[in-house]
Each structure stands twice: as structure tokens, then as C-alpha cells.
Amino acid sequence: MEKPARYTGGEYGQLAKPQSASSLNMLIAFPDLYEIGMSNQAFRIIYNGLNAISGISCDRAFAPAPDFEELLRSNTIPLYGLDTGISLGSLDILMFTLGYELGITGVLTMLDRGFIPLRRTARGESDPIVIMGGPCVSNPLPYERFIDAFWIGEAEAGFFDLAAELRDLKLAGAGRGELLEKLQAHPSVWTGGKKRAVRAVDSGFASRPAVFPVPSIKIVQHHGAIEIMRGCPNGCRFCHAGIWYRPMRQKSADTIRQEAAAFINTGGYREISLSSLSTGDYQHIDSLVGSLNDEYASRHISFQLPSLRVSSFSMPLLEKVSAVRKSGLTFAVETPVEAWQMAINKEVSRDTVAAILTEAKRNGWRGAKFYFMVGLPVGDNERSEEQEIVEFILEIARRTGMNFNINVGAFIPKAHTPYQWAAQIDEKAARSKIEYIRTTLKKRGHKVSFNDPFIAVIEGVLSRGNEGVGELIEKAYERGCRLDAWDEYIKKDVWADLLETHAPLVQAIHTVRNLEEPLPWDCINSGTSVSFLKREYEKSKCKELTQPCINNCNNPCGNCNKETEIVYNNIHDNNLLHDKPSLAETQKQDPITLRILFSFKKQNAAVFLPHLALIELFSMAFIRADIPVLFTQGFNPTPRLDFASPLSLGIRACAEIATIDLNLYDGTDFSAEDFIKKINKNLPDGIIITEAVKVKIPTGSKKHSVPSLLWGFVYQAPENGSDDFVPVLEEKNYRALRITPEKTLFNLTRKAVLAKNPQDASKHDSYFNVYRALYPD
């Protein structure tokens, strides 16, 4: 299997309790690969929140890649939870979070491989209740065929309380039918045929750091994520998230600092994202980042601001963000003409962008990335949007002397936004515009990437369709569609054929809708009034701006009331600043190198962790254990961690060898025994340090790397299931080992052996490797 660690669990910080007949057995499922799902903030919030409730066990699972799906299918093995191994079909409640429309075939894959009927009408008393939430269910009708109940809105605003009530019902003897009735009665739950469901809003927006579990392999966003603000005050008319998550709510600086401490000291993360839809709009963001740098820069912890509006850029802020690790510059321009920007309610002037980039260039930046969309319903017949995008980039390039990366996508109008009545640009027109931008800018030294316009059509149908889309989805799954968000997996020919046979569904998204006609998603009350959306749609046509959200505004959208309103947490600069030693001061060179030489075991599920994952795993464990390690210099500092030799995937280890250099310049010290105790408490299942020695390398002495001291390896293929290590492969007889069906490569255990002294190591031209024994040619 490719990346088997996706399916073995064993990560540090697993939370699910052992499943039992008396507990409410739940599982949060993400319908994409492990690397995507473990990066999803909502997924982690739900997993952490439910496992904090007594009597509830919430496991987790992800969509299998095709190779693993085939293994499950051919061996009639059900898909299972990573923490407890429970099969999906044995649950009380199976939950999906859907953040991207094309993940729906992943939902069907997981249902099918969990031996759960795809259609909700075919499920019986022994099947789990299937719930779906996430931003995509703002229009639940396309998925109604497969899902028993939809949670509309934010889980923190009532879902955890509802889960506790379901637990009590089960404890009292309730069956599936009674649990489902309880769900259906909740005002924020929508089920097929229900007239109305109201979006749940977390008005308190309290601290809930979703730290666990810490992934053992590299994921797409391998960093701690602190949601500093939910919702957005700016009201961009094209943005589904900006409307859906109203009103804007900000956490206090003290809360954010507490969450940062949790992600760093408990999770072991060295990169922390301060995330929101528009991070620069957080009050006093400069002071917040400055105070976090003051506290953590000496430990090489960096803080990122992934979503900055151009109007909130400033060089002092960028310098603070890049104090430890330099990040890229990204500008989401969307559309290049000032009048068109006013139509979408987003101002990004060329002068401002050019000024920022000119100053950034003086401070070491050499390029930037721009995002544009084609097909926004804001243009006119006099100017071509593709030509205007090209001219925008060329002008900025002339004024700054920079080359850029440009990403272009086709705009998809979404439900519950002012453009929900607008027509989506068709594939042919979008492709023509994108190709003009790509070919013209490529000649000028710029790099252009784009989102496939054909995929945009599928997204449009899935996000804006009615219950008839369910048939399309089911047929796509039956014809092998899986993981459609991935270029290497999507079957475009199948989707093209199905879209052709379901032409009315496609035609509907390319047609302007009447403001008075009913919409498929009218059954969902998002909190934003339809009258407000209509006013914004008309203001877009007139190129008229709407001011950002404030309390007691004169243009109410319907989200603010006595219980829920815009929440600002005042942050005072003088409470944030601290006197801390600078990073340069903590990195002064000491004439003596302090080094820990240690040996560790790698067994159980950990044997499927690749070498690079092992490096990251130990690096995070050092942070959790508060081990003051020494870092490399340069653009991306890393701990001075050195392994004797990478271990092949799937081979157990009884004594791998590595070293870590320490930073004890402040006078603190600890023993090798303390090192072992501290680290072993912070390592995942299957990794354990067995021996350690602390050495001082005097000034002027040669600092040997641990690979240069490696004598070689001995290997063992256990007999009769024994795990006792008996060396069978040494320097003089390593060709004696023979692999048979009983002694497979993955049954080997390796032990690394150091030379007695550095001079002995220099006699060896290469390291002894099991592959030489197996394949001498």
C-alpha cells in the first residue's frame, strides 16, 4: 500500500475511548485521504469536543486510496476507526464533514466499504445513523438520498449538547429510530421533507484548542491552527464562507496565547497559523504577532497569517510574521478593474499592491502570488476580463521588477450569497479566457496555474442542484469515481458522459434565476435574510460598495440579534509586550558541543512510518518534552538531529541510533536518564528510546556525524513468531540469510551497530544493508 501509515493509527494523543455497548459509539469521517482530513479544523474540533464528553467515544476514519480500498474489498474487510478499530457499520452514529463538493463520492466509498447501504431508505435498525455537516450542506438537497440527517451550522452551538442527550437516550434503551427522531426534532437539523432548519451559531466562540491527535506523517497543513476570528466583516459578495459564517467574532489575545501554548507545549508544533477568513482585520494583529514572537522566537516557533487582505498588509507586520521563517506574499485580487472590484465589494488598488511589493523587494522578497477569477457577474461589454487581468499583472511587474505566480479559477456562484441568482460561466468560455492569460503571461516570465473549468462545472451542479443530483452522484460512484478532488484519480470521461445525460442539471447553473423564484436551498435559514442578499445583488449591478460590518449598522443582514452580535475583544498593546532575549542572543556559539547519543526501538504500527516522518516525529517530541535542542542556521532552521541511516519501510528496529545536539547555554542541564524519561512520555505508540549517553565534544575536536561512525547492521528474521532479537546477519555472513514466504522482508528486525572508534568506521567503504543480502547483483 502507498503510505500505509494512513491506515494504522497509533498517533500521539489519540482520544477515542474503548467502544462499549453502554457508550454512544460515534465516528467522525472525512471523505478524503488522511493528509487532507487531518488538516481540517472542523474535523479536529468535533473529534476533540465529543471525546471530552463522558460516555461518548468518537473515533475517526478517512477515505481509502484505491489500492487500500481494493485490499479491503478483496478480503471483505470493513473500513474501520483508527483509534479503536471499530467497523463503520457497528457504530451508533457516523458523521461526515463535507468541506468540498467533490468529496461526496468519498462519502459513498466510506459507506460502501463500511457495509452500510448507500441510500438512507435502505438502512435498518442495525445500521448507524449517518449525519453530515460542513459548509457544503448549506444546500443539502443533492446529498439527501444518502444522508439521514444534516447538521446545519457550527457544531459548538448545540451539537455537543445534542450528542449528550442521545447518549442518555441510548443508555435508557432507545434504538436507532428513537435516536433519529430526537435528531430530527432539533431546529438546526434538516432531514428530507423538513420545511426549515436554522443555522446554529456559536455566539460565545470560546477557546477549544483542537490539538489531538498529532499526525505521525506529513499532512497538507502540518501546523497548529488557531482560529482567531470566525466570520468576516467585509461582505465580499462572491464569498460563501464570508456570508455563511456571519457574524464576525474575535477571540481575545489571552485566549489566543493560551491556545498557542497548547499547540506548542502539548502538540509539539513549530509552525502555528493564526487563521480566519481575513486575519488582517483582527484588532491589533501587529501587537499580537509581536508578543507571540517575543515569547517563542527563541524556541524557533513561527507564526503565519494565511489570509491577509491587501488593505491590511504592512511591512512591519510581514517582518514580524517572517521573524523565524520567511513566508510568501499572496494577493487575492479576484478581479482587476476598480469598478468590478466595487461590484464584488472588495477594493484592491494597483497603487497599493505596487507599493507593498516595492517595499517588500527592498526587504528581501523576490516574488508574489496572485489569485484571480473569471466569470464573475461584474463585467461589461467594453472590456475583456482576461485582457484586464493580463494588463494588471504586466503593470505591477513593470513597477516592481518582479515576476509572479498567478492562479486563475472559474467563479462558481454559491447558495446563500448575493450571487445565488447569477449564472455560472460555461466551460468553453472559461477555458478560452484562462488560456489567453496563461499564454500571454508565460511569454513575459510569469507562471500561470489554473483550476480546471470542467471541474468547476461539476462543483456548480453539486452545490446548486436539487434532489435530482443524487442520481448523478450515485451513478458516478457506481462507475468508479473516487477522490475526485485529485487530478490523478478523477475520471473526467465518466463525469463528462454523466453530465451530458443529465443536461438539464448543467443548464440550470448556466441560467440567470429570477429573484422571485424558489431556490432548492430555501429550506435552510442561514441567518442572512433574503432581502439583504437581494439588496446586495442590486448594489453589485450598480458597482456600489457596502461598508464592513459594525454593531448597530444601517444595512442589517439579519444575523445580529440580542443573543448573537458582532464580537470584538479589545486588545491593549501594553498588555502584550514582553522583554525576551532575541533569537540571535540565544544562538551564540559555545566552544563545547553537548550531544545526546541515543538508541530507540521502532515496532508495531510505527514500522510503517517513513524516515522523514520519523524526523518530524522526534522534532515535535523535543518541543513537547521541553528539550532545549540546537537548531541549524539558514532559511528554514531545523533541529540538529542526526540518524545513523534511514530504516526501510516496514522493517522493525530494536536499536536504531541517532544524536541530537543541545542548547544549554543558559546554564540549565539534565542527565541522559532524564532525557529518556522526558522523551518517552511524548512519543507515539511503537517508538521508545532504550538507551542514551550525553557527551561533551571539546573545542577543536572533530564532530563526527553518527553515519560516519556506523559499523553496520545485524538483522533477524524471527522463528516461530518470536520477537527475541538473535543476530543472524553480520559483516562476514550477511549473505547467509535467505528470504522465504515465512521470512518476508517485513518480518525483519534491524539493529544498528556503531564502530568501536572513529578510525574503525573509516575502514568501511559502505554500510551493510539487507538489500545487498537479498539482491547481490
Description of the molecule:
The longest helix has 16 residues, at 385-400. With 777 residues, this protein is of the alpha/beta class. Helix 14 packs antiparallel against helix 15 (453-464). It is built from 24 helices and 23 strands. The model is unreliable at 570-590, 728-737 and 763-777 (pLDDT under 50). The strands form 6 sheets. A 6-stranded mixed β-sheet has the order 2-1-3-4-5-6, sandwiched between helices. Strands 18, 19, 20, 21, 22 and 23 form a 6-stranded mixed β-sheet that branches. A 4-stranded parallel β-sheet has the order 13-14-15-16, with helices on one face.
Helices and strands in order, then pairings?
Elements: E1 24-30, H1 34-37, H2 41-51, E2 56-62, H3 66-74, E3 93-97, H4 104-113, E4 129-133, E5 149-151, H5 159-171, H6 176-184, E6 189-190, E7 197-198, E8 224-227, E9 229-230, H7 240-244, E10 249-250, H8 253-267, E11 271-275, H9 285-296, E12 302-304, H10 315-321, E13 330-334, H11 338-344, H12 350-362, E14 367-374, H13 385-400, E15 403-410, H14 427-442, E16 447-450, H15 453-464, H16 469-478, H17 492-501, H18 503-509, E17 524-525, H19 530-541, H20 583-586, E18 593-602, H21 611-624, E19 641-643, E20 652-661, H22 672-680, E21 687-697, E22 710-716, E23 749-754, H23 758-761, H24 770-774
Parallel strand pairs: 1-2, 1-3, 3-4, 4-5, 7-17, 8-11, 11-12, 13-14, 14-15, 15-16, 20-23
Antiparallel strand pairs: 5-6, 9-10, 18-20, 18-21, 19-20, 22-23
Helix pairs in contact: 4-16, 5-6, 8-21, 9-10, 12-13, 13-14, 14-15, 15-18
Compose a concise summary of this entry.
The chain is built from 24 helices and 23 strands. It is α/β, with parallel strands linked by helices.
